[in-house]
Amino acid sequence: MDTANPTVEHHDEDAAHLASLGYSYDTTFKREMSFWGNVSLGFTYLSPIAGVYSMFAISLGQAGPPMAWALVIALVGQFFVALIFGEVVSNYPVAGGVYPWSRRLWGRKWAWMNGWIYVVALIGTIAAVAYGAAPFVASVFGAELDAGGTVLIALGTLVIATVLNFMGTKVLGMAATVGLIAELVGSVVIGGYLLLFGRQHDWSILFDNQGIGNDAPGGYLGAFAAAALIGMFAYYGFEANGDVAEEIKNPSMRVPKAMRMTLYIGGFAANLLVFSLVLAVPDFGAVASGEVTDPIGVLLHNAFGPIFPLVMLVIVVAFLSCITSLQAAASRLVYSMARDHFLPGSHMLSRFNERRHVPHNALLVAGLFPAAVVVLSLFLEDALTAMVGFGTVGIYVGFQMVVLAALRARILGWKPAGKFQLGLWAYPVNIVALIWGLAAVINIIWPRPTGGGWAEDYLMIMTTVGSSPLGGSTCWPRRRMLAAMRLRVTRAVPSRRSCASAGG
């Protein structure tokens, strides 16, 4: 080890750590992503613009101005989850995120189900963000969209994101950095401008629901719980920092720090944007009644006038970067499961482009399947709704499967040995993270009257329940294959006790 050259030292240390987990670094990813590139990846996946702009009108119409506090609550809750993720990824800095973490904390079946749920959730989320980007693209050109035009634009964004991902880790990091800048302009600059020059109300309005939501099922608390989905939708994505753990130097230290930094910056940007938008809305009743269906568009058009298309262009760049980051995370997850022979067609999905150092077939899956969901929306609108709905709840379920696995592993004697450790705070943080996550999942799937009948009201529950057995049904027939791989996996991956003692 060349102690005079920190780069060489970290390369050797990272390679040794990865080898202790059963993987060879020489034939896979290149560690070309910088710390800020990693932060940018997580931030653009989190995407305050995509989360806030997609949910603002709905949440404001459900609970009025106090709905803004939901973002503060969600940020605190997700920070506890990020601390658990940071400790786990520090111990197991392997590409793929929730799947390899769950596998080492609990076991193969738990990890497979977690990976399945998360893959399906990411496909739905990618499709949702691509679909949601279409109106903003149309706004740049002042065009009106029908269903066909929306689908075409959504497919175009998926093509662009796939091309960027195919160009390698360095380009991915650069694209994420551009997206970070666009996100900050689209949230901090716009939010700051509205706060300084577009404010229509006093700060006390943030504690006054204006009578909105009082007649909701469960009273105002029920209305606020429904509106709180904006916070839950806004603060996931920090696990993407760990999805590319094999593409950053010294991941055991840098990735946990990047996760926290992602939430610091993302939380500031999202809260500034939401609070400034709430204070700038002139008529809350018009939003609640449906008279104004796009309050953000109206605000931005009135505030920025002639440069409105340029503002929309910045938002489009943010959406594109979000899709690119989501796709990168999904491809690493698929690749990670495939190289462990945990997926049908694993041999094909685990193939690696040695020139670009990207899992090219897994990237195609992360592009083609969301594209199929988008196209399917032309024929089955409920299919897109179901996939989008499961996108959020599936990601939260995937998060909590890791949090629960970490708590179980601690009880059974797991001693984290990474460079980031919670120490005496481990149990309290883990328990709070689990309670928060379970409450979030229940709130997301809770049946609420939509006016579309019982099937639509219970769609989230049916999709969630249906997706899990579907994953299991495709897993169990492969027991013989998994049994055949057991010897290789056992030899390649040390036990929890040996990993802890060896720093792996």
Written overview of the protein:
This protein is an all-alpha fold and 504 residues long. It is built from 23 helices and no strands. The two termini are 19 Å apart. Mean pLDDT is 84; it is low at 1-8 and 476-504.
What percent of the residues sit in helical stretches (DSSP H or I)?
Answer: over 70%
Query: Which shape, going by the Cα principal axes?
Result: globular
Gyration radius (Cα, Å) is 22 Å
Taken in chain order, the helices and strands follow as HHHHHHHHHHHHHHHHHHHHHHH
Counted by DSSP, the helix tally is 23
* Secondary-structure class: mainly alpha
- How many strands, what sense, and barrel or not for the largest sheet? none
| Low-confidence runs of at least 5 consecutive residues | 1-8, 476-504
End-to-end distance: 19 Å
> What amount of the residues lies in strands?
under 5%
Number of strands: 0
How confident is the prediction overall: mean pLDDT?
Answer: 84
